[in-house]
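Retro notes - structure team

What went well: the batch runner handled both jobs without manual restarts.
What didn't: labels got mixed up in the shared folder, which is why I'm recording both outputs here explicitly, each with its sequence directly above its tokens.

Job 1
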Amino acid sequence: MGKNLSILTRGIIKENPVLILLLGLCPALAVSTQAENAIGMGVATTFVLTCSNVAISALRKIIPDKVRIPCYIILVAGFVTLVQLIAEAFAYSLYQSLGIFLPLIAVNCTIFGRAEIFASKNKVFSSFLDAIGMGAGFTLALLAIASVREIFGSGTWFGMEIPVLIDNNIPIFTLAPGGFVVFGLLVAAINKFSKTKARKEFGCDGCPQSAICGKGGAES
């Protein structure tokens, strides 16, 4: 029970894919101008991450090692297409808001990272928990960034007007520079208040390419 809980929760803070591992930054900054879009992207990514983790874990003994990456790409792309069709059919406004970043989930480093590092080496249930935890961490990170940007940049939150701020907003928060500023401040806050710094906890040992670059065992 303790091991399963650890797998489920570590993606939220300890190994948060956006604020600690710094993965999936393109959608994190691009769609985080509104909290609603952040939730939509987070849910879509979590769905794809969960389905791909479970499928890859279930097929890990069948997929030949030499073609594992192309197989992962096909699986992930299939689930992303499914998400696109569902969003277009039942949440068309969200589908339009996310735009090109919805199909780009297929190349999200978080998904391929968990497939290679975790799902391909662990059982289905553990891979499921890992995906849920990582997806929740990704969603919460996007929501935190988007909330700050929407509140101060537009004077709203989930489309609801906030008194005073609605007439005294700071438009730069809705632009790219504002996204980078908010992201940097959140990363700095996490590093400041976490018991262990991200750079001390994650090195090249967990990277599947460490043997190629020759930096195995070195700190990041």
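Job 2
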Amino acid sequence: MAFTGFGEITEKLRRSTVLIHVGNRSAGSGVIWSSDGTILTNAHVARGRQLSVRLWDGREFHATVASRDPRRDLASLHIHATNLPSVFVADSAQVRPGELAIAIGNPMGFVGALTTGVVHAIGPVRGLGPQFWVQADVRLAPGNSGGPLADAHGRLIGINTMVAGRLALAIPSNVVRDFLSAAPPDAWLGVTVRPVRIPRSTVADGFGLVLLEVESHSAASYASLLPGDILLGTEDKVFTSLDDLSKILEGRGARKLRLRFLRGDYSRVRRVTVRLGDHNTLRSVAAA
């Protein structure tokens, strides 16, 4: 099937796609959301203090993190630039299986690489909780994360995030809209997590959330949690999905949360008390 002006469509999409650097290394991709300098990417891409964004024309700008949600794996950045070629955003609720999907990104150092495929499904993925994904058979590689997944008209339908089996998973554009319009969360734990199956597990179902990153001066860091620790749940509830962590963080005001986790050889379940919603906290109770 031929699409009139397909080359022009993909070129416009390339111009709305950016390369994100953390320090001196290439970290991933991003999308120009608005012409006044708002950039969307994954939270796991926008890690670190020194972020910069390179545009399609070679210009490079220092970037600041405006908001970040590790649960949804989204981050918005801001650069001091205007009249940028922002992407046109589609309603992801209207996306249907069988539609053409276009991905642009910077995989393995190849800037502006294009790949195409077909949307297979829109919905949850087994083992990743209730979160909806746009699932497509486009080929992604390290460096594609944070880049656009678009329809045949070049309209953004998702933010490419990971690969599960043979399918690429993208965060739907409507979820991105919700992220941008939401108020900052009161309970900031300050971690980036991924679901894992625990080897030699001491827990019944073997499910946990491994900490990929613990941000400095966060509730998790004050509680002595470390990257590599695996969260199992609270004293009352076992985690079975990413959404379980989000639910226990809901609420307002200062409060304490007791977490169960594994560390080291996973031979012993540990416990720690984390103080949430208390920005003046100097130190939480250390991990036991």
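One thing worth noting from job 2: Residues 279-288 have pLDDT under 50 and may be disordered.
We'll revisit the folder naming next retro.
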